[in-house]
Amino acid sequence: MKLRTLTLGLLSASALAFAAHAESITIATVNNGDMVRMQKLTDDFTKANPDIQLNWVTLEENVLRERVTTDIATKGGQYDVMTIGTYEVPIWAKQSWLLPLDKLGDDYDAKDIIPAIAGGLSVDGKLYAAPFYGESSFVMYRKDLMEKAGLKMPDAPTWDFIKQAADKMTDRASGVNGVCLRGKAGWGENMAFLTAMSNSFGARWFDENWKPQFDQPEWKKTLQFYVDLMKADGPEGASSNGFNENLALFQQGKCGMWIDATVAASFVSDPKNSTVADKVGYALAPDNGLGKRGNWLWAWSLAIPAGTQKADAAEKFVSWATSKHYAELVASKEGWANVPPGTRSSLYANPEYQKAAPFAKMTLDSINAADPTHPTVKPVPYVGVQFVAIPEFQGLGTTVGQLFSAALAGQSSVDDALKQAQDAATAAMTEGGYIK
């Protein structure tokens, strides 16, 4: 008995000593469904890497952006892995705030990453963030309600068709809104949608000399169309709705159409969570015949801040979470339709994925239709489809988002919102030295 007690004591001491030497990394991520799913599957990682412990900080999108930006700019060192987007990567990499990802492993196959996505996450040919999922945006719609309205959704609809369909699908008595669109203020919330939409109306944030363009007719047409459409056919309280709120509305059968991230397709078509899973169709984001569609390009990606003391452990985790192996793990647990989309060419060549994901081709077509280097009808001095890749955009985009959200809520007129946006943008660009 004494020998058994002694043995157990030695084992416990050994376990404690091992735990004391285990390296702990802190991961900041967004509360989107794919990231929440990843956290539930990390036993696969920790079994293979028992010397690495994972700590999670999961935040709403706007809060995440604010926290990680503050931390990396002040060299706070709170996080070892950050979930960031296509906007931050080129700016932060040029500031030497991110580590290049050059130790992802021999079997990682970085060349398999879709070129449009990899290009947005690279600087001077080096990858500075690994895409967890990539997305564009498109139209998700109720096929049954479209048929009831006597209409057929084109593969490439116009904004006029969307308006016509929304008017016919709206049924307040049954709790059905013809269309659900983002209204929550934020440069990555309502302004992601509205900037992409404005491209298709011929608008732009700045002209070739960085002069703000909110006083031009193209922005007036964009914002007026959006506000009128949402007032006639959108849900109540739309100015508070972002991606997650609209996802819930669509899954509950309360939206005839929803124009948003392609990544939502696996959630709206999942019968476990969506009451309309078998009734969803997909189409390209709308246009106005000007040569640009209202779709964006984005990748939620994992990056490692230059200030971390745990770079090797962090890169092991990034490699695992964005690997082909992880895709196969999700497929084995949740089915191929729920694999994080939009990052690897091999996924779209996989017959099992094509069969399980009726939205696969439309997703890839949407990603390939976006051009960050030529995002607008008229020439511009910036890159980025639904954002402007300059440091000032994060603050300015949120300010403009607040003004446009207030116009949607009826707290100001479209004209007032645009005038204030023009003033705010002019002040920001003057202070930044872009204009005199």
From TrEMBL:
A UniProt-annotated Pfam family: SBP_bac_1
Keyword check for NADP: no
Signal peptide feature range: 1-19
Alphabetical UniProt keywords: Periplasm, Signal
Localization per Swiss-Prot or TrEMBL: Periplasm
InterPro entries for the chain: Bact_solute-bd_prot1 (IPR050490), SBP (IPR006059)
Major subcellular location class: periplasm
Family: Belongs to the bacterial solute-binding protein 1 family.
Protein name: Sugar ABC transporter substrate-binding protein
UniProt organism field: Mesorhizobium salmacidum
Lineage: Bacteria, Pseudomonadati, Pseudomonadota, Alphaproteobacteria, Hyphomicrobiales
